[in-house]
Design goal:
Blueprint (H helix, E strand, L loop, with lengths): L2 H20 L6 E3 H29 L7 E3 L1 E3 H19 L4 E3 L4 H16 L2 E5 L2 E5 L6 E3 L4
Parallel strand pairs: 2-7
Antiparallel strand pairs: 1-4, 3-5, 5-6
Helix pairs in contact: 1-4, 2-3, 2-4
């Protein structure tokens, strides 16, 4: 496990603690679509922060792996974008009921979403042939439609 992964792993419970402390400032009830949208945006923000850290690190260090073209998509990004779309559709259509959020919900959501993002960060879906594979630090992949 790299130093950056250890930092990210340590930030997950810290974010949960921050959400727990911020609970009085956060809503106690919201629609399911809004809650889904919040979770998906949190997942995408986590990926954005990680990608910015990877870019900063790659500028300081020389890349040992060459860039390669691939027809694949990061699973973390795919889940996040799908969640944003589903949340917006549910909110826009007025589908779903209002949910009461207990005190622990925001902390559990923060830890659960960022923990899932950490677990999914190294996986990509390859479009041809279709499969899920582990591609650690997939900053060196360039998306292409060609085989």
């Amino acid at each position: 496990m790299t130093r950056y992964e250890k930092i990210e792993l340590a930030s997950i419970p810290a974010l949960g603690l921050g959400a727990w402390l911020a609970t009085p400032l956060l809503p106690g009830r919201m629609s399911f679509g809004t809650l889904l949208l919040v979770a998906a945006v949190l997942l995408l923000l986590q990926g954005l922060v990680r990608d910015l850290a990877l870019l900063a690190r790659s500028k300081r260090e020389a890349h040992s792996t060459p860039e390669k073209a691939a027809r694949c998509l990061c699973i973390e990004s795919a889940v996040g974008v799908t969640g944003v779309a589903a949340g917006l559709i549910l909110m826009g259509a007025g589908i779903g009921r209002t949910i009461e959020l207990p005190v622990w919900t925001w902390a559990a959501l923060a830890v659960g979403v960022t923990g899932a993002g950490f677990a999914l960060k190294d996986y990509v879906v390859t479009l041809w042939p279709w499969r899920i594979r582990r591609e650690a630090d997939h900053l060196n992949l360039i998306f292409t439609w060609k085989r």
